[in-house]
Amino acid sequence: MRFLLVFDFDHTIVDENSDTWIVKCAPEKKLPNGLRNSYRAGHWTEYMGRVFAYLGDNGVREDEMKRTMTTIPFTAGMVDLLGFIGENKELFDCIIVSDSNTVFIDWILKAADFHKVFDEVFTNPAAFSSTGYLTVQDFHAHRCAKCPKNLCKRKVLKEFLVKQLERGVSYTQIAYIGDGGNDLCPVMFLKKDDIAMPRQGYTLEKKISQLAQDLSPVECSVLVWSSATDIISYLKLLIKE
């Protein structure tokens, strides 16, 4: 028996959006209107590139960003959940699939000593340039019309499962834990033995319940959570089985 836990990051592991949290580093903790209004739907990574350039232009450097990012709060119960998974790593493989970036996620997980809980992190690659500016790139290219142009989480999950099968690893169940609209695509890929765990009151939960109302429900089972302790309770039952 081996289980795969797939986590989104923003509003799932942490209780905020890491990309908007970084604005606390900006002058007066806000962005100019022109920059804020430059976002185009599906082109978030490009928009964040402009935000990071603005921060760099205003002398915001790596150490200040890191200090700010490591103050981001974890979601209720999440510290306990990640601790529980860490204690039971022989049963759980654990990955993050996120539209944040490698630098932010790395900082946050390492500061809280949770980086060992996760086997892999799939997110937009970021790095500091020689001039000290943070730069970010799209995670990959894909053909999915439903997802933002830089990341289709279903494609990531499918490719990860294929790679694991080649290593001889298959899963009794996949649990997908997320909150956002871009988490629906991978949830639609899950099979009847799997489980989707949408965060209560967020877009993913609303989209899943809308599908059920339209009589085209998702194939997997669904557990709505408001605190990550709800997820611990489920995992404990799973282990007992």
UniProtKB/TrEMBL annotation:
The active site is at residues 8, 10. Its cofactor is Mg(2+). Substrate binds at residues 19, 99. NCBIfam families: DKMTPPase-SF (TIGR01489), HAD-SF-IB (TIGR01488). This is PHOP2 phosphatase. It comes from the Eukaryota. Belongs to the HAD-like hydrolase superfamily. PHOSPHO family. Keywords: Hydrolase, Magnesium, Metal-binding. Mg(2+) binds at residues 8, 10, 179. The gene is Phospho2. The keyword Hydrolase applies. One of its GO terms (molecular function) is metal ion binding.
